[in-house]
Amino acid sequence: MFLRRELLLLAVMVVIVLASVAHHSYFWTSRNISFILADSMVITFLALGETFVLLSRGVDLSIAPIMGLSAVIVGFRAQDHGMTLLPAVLLGAVVGLVLGLGNAVLVAVLRLPPIIATLGTLSVYGGLQFVVTGGDQVDHVPTQYTDLGSETIVWGIPTILLIGVAAVIVTALVLRHTRFGRAVYATGNDLEAAYRSGIRTNQVIFACYVICGLFAGLAGVVYLMRTGSAVATTGTDNNSNLNAIAAALIGGTALTGGRGSAIGAIAGSVFLSLTLTAMVFAGIPAIWQPAGVGAAILIAVLADGKARRQNNTFRLGRLRLRRSS
Known about the structure:
about 325 residues, globular, membrane
């Protein structure tokens, strides 16, 4: 099923590329393709984190301000105190972990519904961004940040893409080849069955929200690499929540939990970046971009529902065949 979804997504992307090239030949240049791939990396990190909570049958609506807080906190340290890149990555990870821990406590310990808990922290963390910035903004980070965000290697492949691919590989290994990863899928598939089989489901859900915060914090550092700036509304001003959830769903992660992959997260992120860039080349006003993302979410959910119904019908048919024989 995943392979079929990924092939379909690839086919749609090819159609978008061909249509865009027919409209404007510059679309298929190494510089523009490099921009599309690099621009998708922020959403890739957010979508990887969102994939964990969606797999556990949850949702995190606070990843945008977590990313924004990480970007401004790290950005001010880099701008005012010359913080180098490695400590910046560690600081961004710590910021994300702490804020993700807040969500984890609300959902897994206090048992608040995920959408209510993270909707609340969306406002709280967003307000903290204004407190941290105090009316200032980050606009002069060291060049080592922006160089890494804009450099390319052979064939115009952006360096930052390698960072994103490394994160995807690590996530895929964790989800598919560790006991924790299998527990995440089991918890999302059937919480009660997972609990009865000995899985500490609350701990799994707790860890998923912490991991989601970690990825959002790292996304803030990646955002600094790409833009070299951060303000009080970073993350919340460009629909990062919506884009990350859309990328995960488009890549095959189910809202009902228990189904999804890290490969799907990066595939959905590249698809979104490609689609939004194609909309710009087509002369579609930026005000319509959120509508395009929303339409993509609806299509992904409808396609997932149809595939699930077909799969259930197929299983029921096989069960009846076995009973009759």
